[in-house]
Amino acid sequence: MSTLLKQGPVAAAEIGTELGLSPAGVRRHLDKLVEDGLAETCAPRTVAGDQASRGRPAKHFQLTDEGREHFGTSYDTLALEAVDVIASIGGEEAVREFARRRVEHMFAGIDPDSEDAEDAVRSVADALEAHGYEPSIRRTPVGIQLCQHHCPVSAVAAAHPELCEAEHEAIARIVDTHVQPLALIADGHGICTTNIPVAQTGTETKGAADND
C-alpha cells in the first residue's frame, strides 16, 4: 500500500520490479486490495511529451480514499481546533450556537408533533445511527434508556461539553419530556447513557442498532 500511496497510479509489474516480487504475486495482492475497497484500477499517469505505447496498456492501480485513511487522518484534531477557534472568537455562547445548529441538522427529519414519546425515541435512535453513534434503546422500570455505543465527536465533546448539552436539549424537545444523562463517553465512560422517563406500554423497545 505504501508503494501505491507514493507512486500510484502504478502497474503490478512496476511494483514487482521495485520490491523484487513476481508480477503475478503482486497482482493477487492488488486484486485483494481492490476487493476490500482499498485500491482501484485507473488509467496510467500521462506526462506531456510521452509517446503513446502500442497495444493494450497495463492495468494500473491507485489507493481509494478508504485506502488512504489507513495511513492516518487528523479529523479529530482538525474538528477540535475548529471548535477551539469558534470559542476563542465568540466565547461559550458561540460554541453553544454551533452545537445547537449541529444537532438541528442531525435531527432535522424528526417531527415531534407527529409522534408519541416512544416513537420519537426510536426516531432519535435512527438519526443517531445515521450519524455513526451506534445507538440502542431498551425499556427500564423508570422509562426508556437510550445508549450510544460510539461517539464520533468524543474528542471535541470532552473539551466542549456544549455538544453533549445541545444533544440532550434537542432529545428532550423531541420526546417532550426532560431527559437524564447518566454517563458520557466524553467523560471516560464506555457508553453514553440517557434515561428518558416516559410511560411504559409494552415489554421491550428496540432501536436502530438492534435491527441489524
From TrEMBL:
CDD domains xref list: HTH_ARSR (cd00090)
Top-level taxon in the UniProt lineage: Bacteria
Protein name: Transcriptional regulator
Organism field: Corynebacterium lujinxingii
